[in-house]
Amino acid sequence: MACCTGEQCKTWSKENALLLATLAGVALGIIVGVAMREANFTNLQIEYFVFPGELLLRMLKLMILPLIICSLITGVSSLDQGSSGKMGLRAVAYYMSTTLIAVVIGIVLVVTIQPGRAGKDDLESTGESPDVAAVDAILDILRNIFPDNIVQACFQQYQSFRVPIYGNVSERVTYQTTPPPEATTFPPVTEIVETIVDYEIDGQYKLGINVLGIITFCITFGILIGAQKDGEIVIRFFSACNEAVMKMIMLVIWYSPIGIIFLIAGEIMKMDDPQETLTQLGLYMATVIAGLAIHGLIVLPLIYLVIVRRNPFKYLAGVTQALMTALATSSSSATLPVTISNLEQKNKVDKRVTRFVVPIGATINMDGTALYEAVAAIFIAQLNGIYLNFGQIITVSLTATLASIGAAGVPQAGLVTLVIVLSAVGLPSDDISLILAVDWLLDRIRTTVNVLGDSIGAGVLQRLSRKELETKSKDFENDAYQDSDYETTSTVSESGSFPKIYPNSDKRKIEYGNENVAYADESSTSL
Predict the structure, then answer these.
(1) Labelling 208: which of 335, 375, 463, 490 has CA 20 to 30 A away?
(2) What are 151-181's pLDDT values in tens digits?
(3) Is 51 exposed, middle or buried (0-12, 13-18, 19+ CB in 10 A)?
(4) pTM of the full predicted structure?
(5) Third-level CATH fold of 13-145+213-464
C-alpha cells in the first residue's frame, strides 16, 4: 500500500486538526502532570493551576441544558408518534442489554481474578462513603423523573433523607471506676437515653440539572407538538435555537485541547503516592480496566459490526474527540455537546437519531459505571472474606444494571449508586472509602466507555430504525408531490433530519439537512 503524498497528508492533517490537537493535549497533560509533581505544589496552588481546565468544564456544562431541550424537542417532533415510540423502545432495550453484558463481563473477571483475596489489612481508607439508603435513592430517581417544577428542574435535583424519630426515653445509671479529681467517693452518673423508634422522610433540593426530568418533559412536549398541525412555528423556533447552540459548541470544542491539558495534569498532581496506591489496589484497577477494555474495544464494536455491517473502528475514529473529552472531564453530560457534534459531522449519523437518542443515552446508558459497580461490590466482599452465592451474584448483576440508569452523568456519581448495589446483598458500604484513592482514574475511564457506548448506540439504532426514518422522509416527499403548489427540486437527503422551513424570496423552501426538497409558493401557503 503506497504511502500518502505530501499533499494528502497535509489535507488529512487540516481536516483532523482538532482531533490531533486533542490527542496532543492528552499526551501533554500527562507529561506536564508528571513533571509538575516535582514542584510539590500545595492544594491551593494546584487549584489555580487547573483554572483553564475549570473554564472548559464550565463552558461545556453551560451548553448541556439548551442542547438537551432543543435537540430532544426538534428530534422527537420530526418523528411521528409511532416512530418515536419504536425508536425509544429500541433505545431502552439496547441500552439495558449492553449494560447487562458489561456487568456480566465485570463479574466474570472479578470472580476469576479475585483481586480482593489478600484482605483489607494493608489498605487505607480515604474520604468518606456516601450515606444513602438504597430504597430512598431509587425513589429519588422516580421523583426526579417527574419534577414538580420544570423551571426548578433546570438547576436543581431533589434528594431525600431520613430524619430519626426518638422515643422510649429512659435513664441509665453508670458507676465510675476512677473517681474525679479531688473526690474520695465514686458518685453514680445518670444518663438520659433516647432510642430511635422510627424515621420520617424529608427532602431538599441540591444544585445540579435534573436531566431525567428535563428529558421526560422534552420528549412528551416534542411528541405532542409534532402531532399538531399548528406546531410548525414552535418546531422552527427550537430548530433555529439548536443550530445556534451547535455553533456555540464548536467554539468551545476548539478551546478543549487547552483545557484538557490542565485537567489531566491537575489530577496527576493531586495524587498523594501513586506507587503505594498502585501496590495496594493495582490488581483491582487492572480488573476494572480489563473489563472496560473488553466491553469497549471488543463487545461494542462487534455489536456494531454485526448489526450495521461496517467497520466499527473507523466509526469510533470519528468520535475520538468526544472520547478524549470524556477522559478529561469524567462527565458524560459535559461531553454530550461534543458527542452530538462528532456523530453528526464526522460520522454523518441522522440528526433525528442523535438528537433523540444521544441525550437519553448520556443519562441512562452507563455501561462502564455498571461494570465498575459490579466489580467493586464483589471486590469489597472478597476483602471482607464474604462468599457470595450464585443468587447473590445475580442480585449484584441486576442491581448494578438498574442502579447505573440512575447515575447522573457527573463525576463520581457511581459511588452513590454503588451503595445501592452493596446494600442489596448486605455488604458494608463503609468500605467504599477503601477504593476512593483510585476512583478518580477509573471514573475517567468508565466515563469514556459510557460515551463510547452512546456513540455506538446511535449508529446501531439508526440502522435498526431505518424503515421508520425512510417512511417519514417519503411521507414528507409525497406531501410535496401531492400539493399542486409545490415544485420538487431534489430528493430527500439520506442523512436525514427534521424538516426546516423558512422564507426564500417569494417562495418557501423546505430542507432536510442541507439538501433542498421542495419549494412552495409563499402566497398559496401560510406559515
Answers:
(1) 375
(2) 998 888 888 888 888 776 666 656 555 555 6
(3) exposed
(4) 0.72
(5) Proton glutamate symport protein (1.10.3860)
